[in-house]
Amino acid sequence: MPPRRPMSALRRKRLLFSYAPDWAAFFALDKVHGYRRVFSLEDTSYVYPYSLLPQRHSQLLLQDVALYMICFVAPLVIQPLINLLTIRSWWDLHNVILGLALTGAVTQFTKITVGRPRPGTSISSFPYIIARCLPPQNATDPIFGLSTDAICTNTDVAIMRDGFRSFPSGHSSLSFAGLGFLSFYLAGKLHLFDKRGHAGKAWLSLTPFAGAALVAISRTMDYRHHWHDVLVGSILGTVLAYFSYRQYYPSLSSELSHRPYSPRIKDELDANLHRNDLESPVPMANQQQGPAAHRRQESAVQQQQPLTATAQEEDYELEGTAPRPSGPGHLYDVWSEGRKDEV
Predict the structure, then answer these.
(1) Domain coordinates in residue numbering, the chain
(2) For 111, phi and psi rounded to 5 degrees?
(3) pTM of the predicted model, to two decimals?
């Protein structure tokens, strides 16, 4: 394989700014206060225990660490290894990380928008068990109404904010998003849908989904989520995993499914060649020059056109990427084409 052209400083800067909104959304959504639903102190679905005892707190911390290790660290370790063994593309590694971040951002947006209380929001009668809300002992619901978070006496902002993020289950969604993304990534690298029917490829690609299912089931065992929170979170995570995968990778049935899409900012050489084609002086030559000059200009353009296509193919090959589907172009180009059709 020929050596790859070094990326210019201008293109690197433009690429950085083009993907900045994607990363900003991922980090900003976790700080949003979000909506908080009303609830009833007499609703039995909200009286499961929520403990802040050191032993229980350590267990929850270990569960969270295990979740991130399984759902994010494992894909971030496995996918670069596959990258090194296959196409060896830094762009592929960037798209992997950004795809995982996108799934987490959309899940967090749903949680802060719905604002459903967790099962352990109300006060509990179990000894040494401290509820998340901590309402007064004699607190009751308003007549012909429900209680709001204003009745809570717990001043821990992080605990209260997390207490109203039950729907959908973040652990279920993130597990299916992270491990589901890994499943799609493996399916693309292995060309699962190549119509050859290799069962080994299917088992290897579906293994991360099995791990995600185990994580999702465990969320109902410690009363952190309702069962429908887990179900919807699992479906949402799977959909988001495929959505995020398709933003940066071709279809699983594509012959180039093992490669990421090309960068949003084209290479300078490709852009300059394309611009030269668009700014060809042939129309002016038809009006101001003779037949001989026109033939020379036409021959030069015919020789230049295949060069552009070749440059594009080499650019994709050098960067280890797949060409993006061609869109309608700029609005000005669409409008210009429409004016030409009218004339």
Answers:
(1) 33-248, 270-342
(2) -65, -45
(3) 0.55
